[in-house]
Amino acid sequence: MGFVFGQWIMHKVLLVVLMVVYSGFSSNVVSSIVEARPEVVNIGALLSLDSSIGKVAKVAIEAAVEDVNRNQSVLGTTKMQLTMRDTNYSGYMSMLEALSLMGSEVVAIIGPQFSVTAHFLSHIANELRVPLLSFAATDPTLSSLQYPFFVRTTHSDIFQMAAIADIVDYYGWRAVTAIYVDDDHGRNGIAALEDKLAERRCKISYKAPFSPNVNQPSEISDVLYKVALMESRVIVVHAYPDKGLQVLKQARHMEMMSAEYVWIVTDWLSAKIDTNSPLATEDMDDIQGVITLRMHTPNTKEKSKFVSGWSNLASRKAAGGTFGLNSYGLYAYDTVWLLAYAIDAFLNQKGNLSFSYDPGLSELQRKNLHADALRIFDGGNLLLKSILQVNFTGVTGSIKFSDENLIHPAYEVINVIGTVFRRIGYWSNHSGLSVEIPEEIYKKTPSNPNSRQQLYSVIWPGQTVVKPRGWVFAHNGRRLRIGVPNRVFYHEFVSVEANNMFSGYCIDVFTAALNLLSYAVPFDFVAFGDGHNNPNTTELLRLISVGVFDAAIGDISITTDRARMVDFTQPYIESGLVVVAPVRKLNSSAWAFLRPFTPMMWLVTAVFFLVTGVVIWILEHRINGDFRGPPRRQIVTILWFSFSTLFFSHKEKTMSTLGRLVLIIWLFVVLVLNSSYIASLTSILTVEQLSSSIKGIESLVSSNDPIGYQRGSFAGRYLVNEYKIDKSRLIPLNSADDCSKALQDGPQKGGVAAVVDERAYIELFLSSQCEFSIVGQEFSKNGWGFAFPRDSPLAVDMSAAILKLSEGGELQRMHDKWLLGSPCRLEGAKEDANRLHLKSFWVLFLFCGIAFVLALIAYVIKIIREFAKHCSEELEGSTSRSSPSAHLQTFLSFLDEMEDDVKSRPKRRRMAPKASSRIIDANTSRNSDYVESSIVALEV
């Protein structure tokens, strides 16, 4: 025991010693880690200090570095040491300054300011693993996998372009003109705008680039002169602040700031005004009515504190005087803090701040290029990872990356009017356009952005509140080429005369609609077709889509396939497909009086007459003497009563309540049947009836007879695609005479059984061909419209004009002028056109049948109750039991008896005993008297 206890003591002592040693070792390790954190971390910044964004960013970055170094809760005792270089708008200087910074072993560079510089510096950053944190390079392509060490700490232009596309779509414009600086920043931004517009079925109709180094106003004037010749009047300007102001100034001098223009510029304008506010009066005059964007940042306490102290910062740090704070300055300030948090996380993960020699530069060193100063940042990958994982709240709101982009991109939509900005709404990728602050919308349940699109009113260029149309006819001298089908027949719709004159119903509608437009439309009609064969209308529309024609008018049917190629106006005439076939007259006969009703209708009517008689007989038999007698007489009474109600001549009276109710309902049905029969018979005997072996499209499809159609029409393709009719059965016809001859010959003589064509054509055809008629129903609903290129604004205006013509009655007057006055116009030739079917009266018969059933049920219940009472009285005092057959016989006898007889029988039975007792008493009295008289006689 002593030995064991001694070992236990030794183990305890050893454990204590180890704990002390471990504790000392741990404290030394911790102190060594703390001591391992560097005193200084070098960071760099690349700015163009003379620019509106650069001079604001310089003050913001320096202030942020000071704030970080004062706040030991982020980096502790480690200080950020900033090295700032001025690139002076030069890409070449940007590259040299960047190489100089990387040679001074900076762990990250804030910048560059311009997207053009960021593109080639990103390649160097990839090689040397030095992260670039840019608060101003907004080119969307910089977010690609090609530039992993480029981190954008502001919002990409892809969101700004989405906002502009939403504005264009919100106001209903379909095309814009883009003016942009011709470099990576301008080209890639406009490419993003083009993609966003395409998503909304809009487009850039003309691109007008200008050189980044443009200095002469004449160079900008040349660009604007070409823009003025274009059709679109919605102009988007994507440039740098100074160049963009030159464009707007020159546009005003060229009178391009009038009421018909719309100017939408990217956020460079808001940055310019925020920085240099107030602008000179002349500069403000150049931008009146312009719509611009500004990056939206929430109103937080951090932002309010920073903004309120901006004047002191700018006066203290800027040598050239004070200036305003723009949104890029806010993001520049947050970029420093973002980098500080990332460096802190990097150091906590024992990140390596060492730099190593790049062996790939040895060849350049041998060529005396002095590239040995460039070093690879060994901890670059870890620092980049730490940057992308930062999550904090800065002066711009929540700073967090999602898919390498900052979350919650949002913009303010600004209208420049007078000397101030006027905010007309917001845009965010969460809600689209809205007058509600994005932060409030983020708190709500996500919804369809298109459901809340809204902006306040805008004062447009020219000091007008009327929304500009957004387009005009191009001032380049070209007139619209409008294709017109050169038809072989049906010239009432379109006629092309020898002297190239065009007339017809379609021509009149088109010219009348043009006259209602508020602007002139220069155009020329161009005949399409040789005049010997009907042209292919689908081919004419295809030529519009490829730019050969600017529009097409005439008898052009609107179909699904055609609507995919062009845009149609509102239909100006309805015209569906119908079937035309030879018809014969239905001669009157001795049995014409049966034709108003169908056989089924006659059968059901007769059955209900009989059922009515039977029901009335059942209800009246026991109480009404008119419905009693021998069986033969009762059958005759039922038949006579049933059919006499047809003429309301029945003489039998109904005495029961149920019987009267049933009779009233039935007489109402008879009244309706009589009225309908008389009306239908009158129509049959006075209106000429026609008959054809073809009943409609269904019977035509089920047969194997050939079918005719108008050459060039969509009817042939429609029959093949929709009704699966074999092409061999379809016969193209070139003229009205061909149609008439083919129908007269019929299938037996090489003709056709029927012709399928549009109703508008057929009505003209039947005006002079009385032996044919439309059979069956119209089986395709479509109309005729004028065709224009996709997204043509003229199509919308023409549709409104056509509706106005229709509402004013002018469209009908033109229709009557060209297409009315047809003596043989027939609506159809259906054998049963005026016949009455059961489906027209089934509700009446249903109500009548229900009344019959309910009356019978009520009657049966009443009879059963009376029979039960009768049986109880009959069996009272009787000890014998009747068999079921006897009960049934008794019940049938009870039904056949008069109700009064049944009711009077118990009364007679009760009176019979009393009468018998009176007779017995009388006889007894008489016998007593006789005995007494006999005794008296004997005594005498």
Structural description of this entry:
By secondary structure, the chain is an alpha/beta fold. Among the domains are: 40-154 and 320-397, Rossmann fold, CATH 3.40.50.2300; 157-299 and 409-451, Response regulator (Rossmann fold), CATH 3.40.50; 592-686. Helix content is 48%, strand content 15%. The strands form ten sheets. It has an eight-stranded mixed β-sheet with strand order 7-6-8-9-10-16-17-18, with helices on both faces. Strands 2-1-3-4-5 form a five-stranded parallel β-sheet, with helices on both faces. Helix 18 crosses helix 28.
Total strands: the figure is 34
Average pLDDT, rounded to a whole number, is 81
Q: What CATH architecture of one domain do you see? A: 3-Layer(aba) Sandwich
Question: Helix proportion of residues, in percent?
Answer: 40-55%
Give me the side-by-side strand order of the main sheet: 7-6-8-9-10-16-17-18
How would a crystallographer describe the biggest sheet?
Answer: 8 strands, mixed
Supply the number of helical segments.
32
Strand content: 15-25%
- Over all CA atoms, what is the radius of gyration? 50 Å
Low-confidence runs of at least 5 consecutive residues: 1-35, 825-834, 927-940
Overall 3D form: elongated
Indicate the structural class. Answer: alpha/beta
The top-level CATH class of one domain is Alpha Beta
CATH superfamily of one domain: Response regulator
Keywords: Disulfide bond, Glycoprotein, Ion channel, Ion transport, Ligand-gated ion channel, Membrane, Receptor, Signal, Transmembrane, Transmembrane helix, Transport
Pfam family, one: Lig_chan-Glu_bd
Subcellular location: Membrane
GO molecular function: G protein-coupled receptor activity; ligand-gated monoatomic ion channel activity; signaling receptor activity
